[in-house]
Amino acid sequence: MKKRIFSGAQPTGQLHIGNYLGALKNWVALQDEYEAFYCIVNLHAITLPQDPAGLRKATLDLARIYLAAGVDPSRSTIFIQSDVPEHAELTWVLSCIARMGELERMTQFKDKGKGNAERAGVGLFTYPVLMAADILLYQTDLVPVGQDQKQHLELCRDIAERFNRDYGETFKLPDPYIPPVGASIKSLQDPEKKMSKSDENPNGSILLLDDADTVTKKIKRAVTDSGTTIDFDETRPAISNLLSIYQILTEKTRHECVEHFQGKGYGHFKTELAETVVEFLRPFQERVREFDDETIKSILQPGGERAREIAADTLGDVYVALGIE
Ligand code: AQP
Hints:
Elements: E1 4-9, H1 17-30, E2 35-40, H2 42-45, H3 52-69, E3 76-80, H4 86-95, H5 100-104, H6 107-112, H7 122-136, E4 142-144, H8 150-167, E5 175-177, H9 212-221, H10 237-250, H11 254-260, H12 266-290, H13 293-322
Parallel strand pairs: 1-2, 2-3, 4-5
């Protein structure tokens, strides 16, 4: 029996290279070794207002991105979260287990709620509980995510442990898989902030569907630090961030990257980085165009059915444990 992985992304706009390097790339690498479930988490998306037509389109577009990145539907189950109603049902149960205090400590709520709890949606507050339900429904062993999701994963484990302690062994405790490089790609305009789909500054993120000119301009405009050497250096987060992107895409070691750019200036480095990113995106974008809506739907529908079988089993066990079945 293979161990199981679960992960997902929100159809909340266009994916950026941070989503790819921090998450999707690892989904693809892990799908042979694990039984994989990759979800399009549209119920998470509505924790902030979405245009309905836009959300519908973004849901199919995100499936296209998964496939173009190399997620293989013959090996991995790809599905839409709302096709499996057990996600919402288990969320209710787990919100009776989670504590307000735990959720109040979640930094993503503080960021996305802009520190204004009075005005923030309840769904935004309970977002990590829905995420815990997503993961626990599949008796998941491993969850490949970026660094920003680590705190939510820890909460997921705490909720599962508490349920198991109070109602008997029901959930497997999942481990995070956070890649050693690329787990937190930063904004090109502000290396203190992570690259984000919802960034108001379009120059902060390299989108997976950006054309070559746009990529080159964004990289040329990326902020750099006051130094002159091309090096990994904690005190110079901007250049370290750009170099990390280069490192992952070229599959070089840190040492090889530094050696490669020894004696070269920022201008030279940015030109080579832009070429590297463009060369990576070109075939990726060609693959995105290969999948029409019908093909996508013909993958998502059986994916949802397969996911539902497992989710329903787990939810059945939960209800028995709780005595409400
Ligand atoms: N900057 C990042 N570096 C590395 N990994 C990242 N991820 C997100 N941003 C980075 C990882 O991508 C996966 C899917 O993310 P998501 O769709 O759940 O959205 P998010 O984590 O809320 O991040 P975004 O892209 O910034 O979206 P918005 O702006 O909508 O919040 C996750 O595994 C995440 O860790």
